[in-house]
Amino acid sequence: MVKTPLDLASTVLSPLLLLLVAAGGVSAAELDALPSGDLEKAAVSAKGTEPAKSVTAPDAVEPAQNPAAEEPGGDVTGSTPEGAGVSAAEPADEAVSQAAEEPAYVPEDERQVEVLERKGGSLGYNFVFGEDNRGRALEYGFLKSSRSGGLFYRHMEKDTNLELEGFYLNENDYHGDLLMDYRGDYRLHLRTESLYHNLDRDILFSPSFQGPRTDAPGSATYSAEQQDPQAHYGVSVVQDRADFRYRLHNFPLHLNLGYWRYTKEGTIQQRFADASFEGEANTVYARPRSIDQQIQEGRLGLDAHLGPVDLVYDFKIRYFEDRLPTPVATYTARNDIHGNLERLGGEQQHNENPDSRFFSHTLKLHTSLSGGLVGSASYSVDQRENLSDLSDVTGARHMKVYLQNAAGDVTYTPNREYTFALKYRRQELDNGNRGALLSVNFADPLQQVKAPLETTRNLVTGTVWYRPRHDLSFVGEYRGDFVNRDNVSDLPSPATWALPDHSATHTGSLAVYYRPFKGLRSSAQYSYASTDNPAYGASFKERQEGKLLLTYTGGRWGVSTHALIRHDRNDEVVHFVLNTLDPLDYSVMPLTSRHGSSENANVGAWWMPLPKLTVGLNYSYLHSEVEQPVFFTTVGVGSEADSQFSSSSHVYTVNVSYALGEQCDLSLMAQQIRSRASFSPAGFSSAAYSGSSTAGIGGITAQDTVISALSARGEYRFSRVLSTTLEYTLRDYDEKNSQNINYQTYNGMVHAIVAGLAAKW
């Protein structure tokens, strides 16, 4: 049924009117209330002079005005000797004055503390509309209009603290928080939050093309099937958390209990391929896939202060569950390179997200965190278990990974000028319960699987702080990272990985922190790192990095600048060429080099030209560039081509806020991001496969993106209780590369208007 304008107005205005009536009643009650001083005057006026007798409590006055006289018989009489009434009045007034000036001591359990309470809420409506593909323009946000509202409640008294806060924007974007505390002995914290993430829909290649095949003469066809026309993808992510802490009153012991849940629901684009160098038909698919995943974690912890040391124990158990069945697709039968049947055809499972289970035990020990010498140590052991539930593959379920971590820290401060610190970390990664892997999808069910890496990592850090003056500090640091690997070899093989068996990275840095006068803060840092055996093509052999920070805050203006420059170099990049498939044989290509650099800078300033006007400006620049040869095939020598990848972004931001009197606030924000990226390989044509070249890659991969955002907000306070807000937001995503039609599908614009009415008292 289509809503009429009257229906829409009723939907929006009805809750607002209810809130307005409630807030108006509270506001009227506050305005009509008679001050307490006026109430006392009215009471005195009504009863004449009688209240004057009760100005001082009888219990406080009688002992001074009527001193008890003890008779010889032991009886107490309240009579006053003649003429004593006048003389006794002066000591009585003096005693009352002293009692007022020096109140009697009251035990902590009997002290009275004023109760503080605040509460409020808001109701509104969130209008969302736009053009074209709105997912890139508003990546995190639900693209439908909805009611909105929030509430908060705070109650604080001597032994109890209660805080409740929440806001609802739509069914996929909300948060709530509850905190309860009783005398510090019991503390409960509950929190829930949700957001919506819009995902891309990629367009597969077209048209089909021909390529080589290895099992028979001729060529193979490579095609794409886009099986998700006009689909919109996105997932809703919800996190729930509960933490409880109990303190054993007068004993320094805490019991900590925690629960955390993470759920993801929605639809994504699943891309997978039925492709091989053996066979005539090869297809890439794109289909919608529903997502319903959940992670649950429980935590138990104990911490105690045991004289000179503190002891902490923590236990965690985490379980991941994919609550939907694994997708199934029909695959083509495949031969090996000799033409013999190797993989069977038919329906097969693919892209499983296996369930898993995780356990963790952690023990920590540390001395007092104050003093000249501070030490700490910790040890943890983790276990991850695969709970795969595939029906056509067995052997993966109950495979386990063991992770052990040990750490030790020592900090020594002999005087105010020097501080020395030494840190040590050790991590061991082991794989257990690795058996045979069987698959009914192959002619030979027993499949050989390469065992994963097992590593040992040691990290040593030494730091020296030197403070010759209160405004000047020097920090020097050495960091050594040592990694040992098992199950590796010089060349790739079916059972080993082509990685170095050990790598050592040494890093040294020096930093200076200087504050010459109040408001100015500056720092500079330089570091140099080297690695003897870079493990991967993107690893560095030498790295130099510099950082610079300068900020100044004055009375009515301020400025902040930050810069980061990094240069990486690796002249030992290893590539392998495949000689034969059966048996599998590789050889090493001549070493190549890789150079990378990045420069990031930020400049921001704010200014208050008027007491109620604040203007802010900010500019950021980000740039990265990589140069290295890229191998376009591993089955022929000479297929490398010098390539360059570069990306840069300019971010411009303007903020203005103005307080229009005591009742109205206005703010405006405008931002634009200009980003470019390109991949430019040198010209290369394959002699083995005609028509294969690098021509056109740069054009179809280049991106020239402009992202614009505008936000305006106004708030008007009718009274101390009631206020209203109106906010408008515009987001626009514009891809300007016309050579790739797929990029154009991401263009879109989103408008959002949030109107609300709030009350607090």
Alpha carbon gap, first and last residue: 40 Å
Helix/strand class? mainly beta
Overall shape:
globular
- Count of helix runs: 6
Would you write up a description of this structure?
With 761 residues, this protein is mainly beta. Among the domains are: 54 residues, no CATH class; 192 residues, no CATH class. Helix content is 10%, strand content 59%. It is built from six helices and 41 strands. It has a 26-stranded antiparallel beta barrel. A three-stranded antiparallel sheet has the order 20-23-24, with no helix packed on it. It has a two-stranded antiparallel ribbon with strand order 1-2. α3 crosses α4. The protein starts with a helix and ends with a strand. The N terminus is likely disordered.
Topology:
Blueprint: H1 5-32, H2 36-47, H3 58-65, E1 69-70, E2 76-77, H4 84-101, E3 116-132, E4 146-156, E5 160-170, E6 173-182, E7 186-199, E8 209-212, E9 219-226, E10 233-247, E11 253-274, E12 281-306, E13 309-322, E14 328-331, E15 334-335, E16 341-343, E17 346-349, E18 355-367, E19 373-387, E20 393-394, E21 400-412, E22 418-432, E23 437-439, E24 446-447, E25 454-469, E26 472-486, E27 488-489, E28 497-498, E29 502-514, E30 520-531, E31 542-553, E32 557-573, E33 576-580, E34 585-588, E35 592-610, E36 613-631, E37 640-660, E38 664-681, H5 697-701, E39 703-717, E40 722-735, H6 741-744, E41 748-760
Parallel strand pairs: 9-12, 27-28
Antiparallel strand pairs: 1-2, 3-4, 3-41, 4-5, 5-6, 6-7, 7-10, 8-9, 10-11, 11-12, 12-13, 13-18, 14-17, 15-16, 18-19, 19-21, 20-23, 21-22, 22-25, 23-24, 25-26, 26-29, 29-30, 30-31, 31-32, 32-35, 33-34, 35-36, 36-37, 37-38, 38-39, 39-40, 40-41
Helix pairs in contact: 3-4
Keywords: Signal
Protein name: MtrB/PioB family decaheme-associated outer membrane protein
Organism: Geomonas terrae
